[in-house]
């Protein structure tokens, strides 16, 4: 989907008093990085900022990056509401940019990529950008809809060209200096059954 199509999707959801994504963080991301000491983080393809807001609530300084200005505007409004009520949603920079082109101007401790569904070559560029954004010892936490979800899962995009594949994720990581900690399929409980996701947890080697 183009940024204009995502802008429309986010705008329509907001007008209906809803959101495209859940307001809470992705459960796998939460379980994977929740215990890390706060530092500087990038939420690449942040959407409405659910993971950014959660990270900020834990004390992270976050840069939320997405090519949809409408999605980021929703996240910025939610951050302002949290700040107005004594929350921790204000320490976020909102950057409109393409995940296949953007690299953090300064090294960060964590990059989160949740459900950035792109063809393999474009996804590899996003992974390379994430690796280039990390400081030595930094962590990449990535999750997306797996291609096998079409045959044995529920929901998600139906275009196989933009669905993840574990081998393709490993290949993308292999094109960087990342050390893969974990790369596999996971099952995510959903209404009516399970969805099949692919995850990549990797770290940039310490200097």
Describe this structure in words.
Strands 3-2-1-4-5-7-6 form a seven-stranded mixed beta sheet. The N and C termini lie far apart (39 Å). 34% of the residues lie in helices and 28% in strands. The chain has 207 residues and is of the alpha/beta class.
Features:
207 residues; 28% strand; alpha/beta
CA radius of gyration is: 16 Å
Which strands sit side by side, in order, in the main sheet?
Answer: 3-2-1-4-5-7-6
Mean pLDDT, all residues: 88
SSE pattern: HHEHEHEEHEHHEE
Characterize the largest beta sheet: strand count, sense, and whether it forms a barrel. Answer: 7 strands, mixed
Low-confidence stretches: none
Number of H/I helices = 7
Which structural class fits the helix and strand makeup?
A: alpha/beta
- End-to-end Cα distance: 39 Å
Helix content: 25-40%
Number of strands: 7
Instruction: Identify the overall geometry.
Output: globular
Estimated share of beta-strand residues: 25-35%
Give a short overview.
By secondary structure, the chain is an alpha/beta fold.
